[in-house]
Amino acid sequence: MAGRVSFGSDLVTDIESPADEDGVHDSFSQLIQEQCHDLHDVIEMTPLDVEQESRDDFMYMEAPGYQRSDSDGPQQTDHLIGERWSSDTLKVLSSMPSRTIGRSRGAIISQYCNRTMQLRRHRQSRPSIQHFPRSARPSIRGYRVETDGAGFEEEESKRERLVNNLQNLSAHDRVRVLRAMPLSVAEKKELRMLVLNKAEHSVSQSQIPCCSQLKYYIIIALRHGWYGWLSFLSSLQLWQTALKCVGGRFGTGVLSYFVFLRTLLFFNVFLFLVTGLFLVVPQAIAHPEQNITVSSTWGLEVLTGAGYFSHSLLYYGYYSNQKLQTGHSCPPSKNVTSCSPGLSYNMPLVYFFTIGAAFFITCIILVYSMSKSFGQSFRIDKSKGLLAIKVFSSWDFKVIKKSSVRLQRANIGTQLKELVAEVNRQELKFPVLQRLCRLLIHMVAWIMCLAIIIASVLAVYYFSEHMHKDLIRTHASSSDPLLKEASLLAVPVVVSSINLLLPGFFNAVAWMEEYDSPSVLNYVSISRNLLLKVSVLGVLCYHWLGRVASDPHSLGLECWESFVGQELYRFLLMDFVFMLLDTFFGEFLWRLFSQKALKRKRKPVFDIARNVLELIYGQSLAWLGVLFSPLLPAVQIIKLLFLFYMKKVSLMMNCQASGKPWRACQMTTIFITLLCFPAFLGAAVCVTYTMWTMSPSKSCGPFRGLRTMFQAGKLWVQELAEVNPNLQWLASAHTYLVENPLFLFLSAGIFLIVIYFHSQVVDGQRKIIELLQEQIENEGEDKKFLITRLQDIHERKKGVTPRRVKGASEDSSYS
Q1: What is the predicted pLDDT for the residue at 203?
Q2: What's residue 81's pLDDT?
Q3: pLDDT at 791
Q4: Distance of CA 44 to CAs 189, 705, 805, 807, 814, Å?
Q5: What whole-number distance in Å separates Cα of residue 412 and Cα of residue 389?
Q6: Number of alpha carbons in the 13 Å side-chain half-sphere of residue 697
Q7: Which end of the chain has fewer CB atoms at under 10 Å, N or C?
Q8: What is the pLDDT of residues 271-309, one digit of tens each?
Q9: pLDDT < 50: residue spans in the chain
Q10: Distance separating alpha carbons of residues 292 and 318, to the nearest angstrom
Q11: What are the start-end ranges of the E strands in 571-680?
Q12: What are residue 308's DSSP bridge partners?
């Protein structure tokens, strides 16, 4: 372990008590008053039993952290530790709200015996028992608090009646009753075995009918089938074993990256299914006749997306603007005029609503995922409590395979290291001068990072402008087509190089800052990489929509939408290529150089911030390109699949776990939040701006001939109103709800308000939980105070009683 954990007096104050313990606390005060009254107003005294005195002298409270000492001087500062406990105090302890409700075991069995009798009588009206009143835990036993023989016989008779009543219950109700009993596990197991043995004995005496046996066999078979189906469904989870291996070896921080990658894969699968079913498949069925010959460019079109792919289903320009017909149904030996037209498919309308619906559903899923993740990650879970739960109740005893046992052991071990590190982590307090120096270092580091980000953004802006002018000159002059197509890769290569090199500079600056917490270091790195990615994407969006789309004729483009789709395809592919290079040079070769040349066993640590921001950057490109390239999500799916296995293999071979274990309890929430607001919101704004304001190409695509893409929905509504006058209200609704941007802003505002209120509710729940935990700690302190008072009163009473007994014996001798 990374450090030691004390389960001593720190956990004593974390005792939870029932909600209905006010009466028991009142009984504490009454008991103290009675003890004080007996101390001053004793009427008749009896000699104390020697055995009881000796028993009181050697009674000690056994708990973690309590110690005994043979020396005369006090060894503990707490009055509760190392004190002698009398039988009266032990009885009070057995009545504490945190231990029991003040009843003996016989009373508990008697109560549940009566309860099962009532349940058996009212089974018709009460088919299930789900609302039992809360009971407490069993009383303290083992402190030689003895009972008489009559009580024992009465307890046994009550136990027998309880067994009979449990036998008459259904299996489901019997399990619920046994779970609700405030008895130990051994006693519950004993009761269950008694019930089962008695049931088997009764079954052996009376033969079960054949129909009942068949019914039982069918129920058992269905239950086994249901459990097997649930196990099969759990085994279908994507990369479940691989994620467990990663989490067990590298911790929750690295695991959050792979979980986030799987989440992005599901988003792209959804986009691919929507665009494939409603756009690609209908267009592929109604294949348009295009007599276009494309010259091959030595396979370079795989990297550039041009050439053969320019006139394929991959890009916007291939899709038709007509209503697609599935065919004509003509009966035999009839005229052609009697032929009925087949089904029509309005491609412009479907294209518009498919893209809009895909973004709207993705927005809903993202908001829901973010809200759910907020509620799960920002809970108030004390590390000590989680550590105790992980130590005592985290092992799954149903795991029997050796590989699964090793995997579970490694996973639990890594989580324990993270929890122990969080428990032992303390905030370092520096002197004022040192804090000022650290603040100055942080300011200089941020200034350096912001300066290099601004310089990179300016470099991308001017380089993209230069390449745009170069394309205009190349179009005006006849040049080599191979060189022209290869020049299209210049801007993607420059941008990918910046995304590859600058995170290393950020890591070097963060190393100079010397952050104490690994989580803070990751958050700072994420924020710096996020600024870089968002700034570069903003410049690229201006380049595509402000330069290319505003004047496509200067570049000789007949379909600027397909050109923008090709650009996004090139950026997505170059991003993947440079991630391969980073994995090879930054992890594999660096590990070989460190081990062979430097003779060090240390391996590089997986950079979570850089890799996560690369995923968000690639997903932003996919969302931006789904309008111009409906099959771009398929390319992103292939990229993510390769990336998962490549990163997993490289992680296992070339990386090591962080030297400072830390628990990433909120990393997934932060990733989803960054994916929603900077990435998806920016992509949605760009796509909406293109559909509302940009003029589509006049010679290609489903929106040719329209002033804007948004006009396709308006024309469809007008056609419906002309065909059916009763649908005039639909045109008005479309005008005020869809054409008016106020509705879009209103919807976005409602989403933001929902997220805000949900975050406020979660924050309020956190504050309430903090207050409740503080109240529980205060109640624990109150109990310690009351027990100390009781013990003091008992000690004073022991000092007064011998003197009074001695005086009573002298009076009897004189008489």
Answers
A1: 52
A2: 43
A3: 81
A4: 47, 112, 9, 12, 18
A5: 11
A6: 24
A7: C
A8: 999 999 999 999 988 776 565 655 555 567 888 888 788
A9: 1-29, 31-32, 35, 38-83, 100-104, 124-148, 205, 328-329, 331-338, 340-341, 805, 808, 812-815
A10: 12
A11: none
A12: none
Contacts by 478-481 with C-beta closer than 8 Å and gap 24+? 481/295, 481/297
Distance separating alpha carbons of residues 384 and 422, to the nearest angstrom: 9
Contact 250, 651 (CB under 8 A): yes
Task: Report the pLDDT value the prediction gives residue 382, as an integer from 0 to 100.
Answer: 59
User: Contact at 8 Å (CB) between 7 and 388?
Assistant: yes
Which residue is it, tokens 């090793």? 406
pLDDT at 459: 96
Gap between the Cα atoms of 321 and 351, Å rounded = 10
Residue 337: per-residue pLDDT: 45
Burial 529-547 (b: 16+ CB within 10 A, else e): bbbbbbbbbebbbebbbeb
Rounded-to-integer distance, Cα 479 and Cα 476, Å: 9
For residue 495, count other CB atoms closer than 10 A to its CB. Answer: 24
Q: Cite the beta strand spans of 180-283 per DSSP E.
A: none
Whole-structure pTM value: 0.71
Q: Are 474 and 484 in contact (CB under 8 A)?
A: yes
Residue 349: both structure tokens together: 């309308």
382-409 burial, b at 16+ Cβ within 10 Å, e below that, comes to: ebbebbbebeeeeeeeeeeeeeeeebbe
**What pLDDT does residue 380 have?**
52
For the chain, report the end-to-end CA distance as a whole number of angstroms. Answer: 74
* DSSP assigned state of 122: T
- Which residues are CB-contacts of 248 (< 8 A; sequence separation ≥ 6)? 407, 408, 409, 410, 411, 413, 414
Please state, in angstroms and as integers, the Cα–Cα distance from residue 305 to each residue in 27, 333, 573, 574, 702, following that order: 82, 50, 9, 11, 20
CA-to-CA distance for 96 and 89, rounded, in angstroms?
Answer: 11
Tell me if 251 sits within 8 A of 420, measured CB to CB.
Answer: no
The DSSP annotation for 232-256 comes to HHHHTSTTHHHHHHHHHHH-HHHHH
The answer to whether residues 272 and 265 touch, using CB atoms and an 8 Å cutoff, is no
- Let me know if 560 is exposed, middle or buried by CB neighbors in 10 A (0-12, 13-18, 19+): buried
Q: Are strands 344-346 and 328-329 parallel, antiparallel or unpaired?
A: unpaired
Yes or no: say if 417 and 658 are a contact pair by the CB < 8 Å rule: no
Give the relative orientation of helices 252-275 and 667-674 as an angle to the nearest 10 degrees.
Answer: 30
CA–CA separation, 225 vs 13, rounded Å?
A: 46
Q: What pLDDT sits at residue 514?
A: 83
Tell me 79's DSSP state.
T
pLDDT confidence of residue 530: 94
Phi and psi at 581, nearest 5°, equal -65, -40
List C-alpha distances in Å: 473 to 275, 295, 401, 557, 700: 37, 22, 68, 14, 24
Q: Report pLDDT for 329.
A: 47
The predicted-structure confidence for 518-544, as pLDDT tens digits, reads as follows: 888 888 999 999 999 999 999 999 999
pLDDT at 198: 73
Residues 445, 510: contact at Cβ < 8 Å?
yes
Strand partners, 341: 328
Show the beta-strand stretches assigned E in 274-398.
323-325, 328-329, 340-341, 344-346
Residue type, 471: L
Secondary structure class of 325 (helix, strand, coil): strand
Tell me which residue of 662, 304, 620, 374 sits closest to 517, measured CA to CA: 662
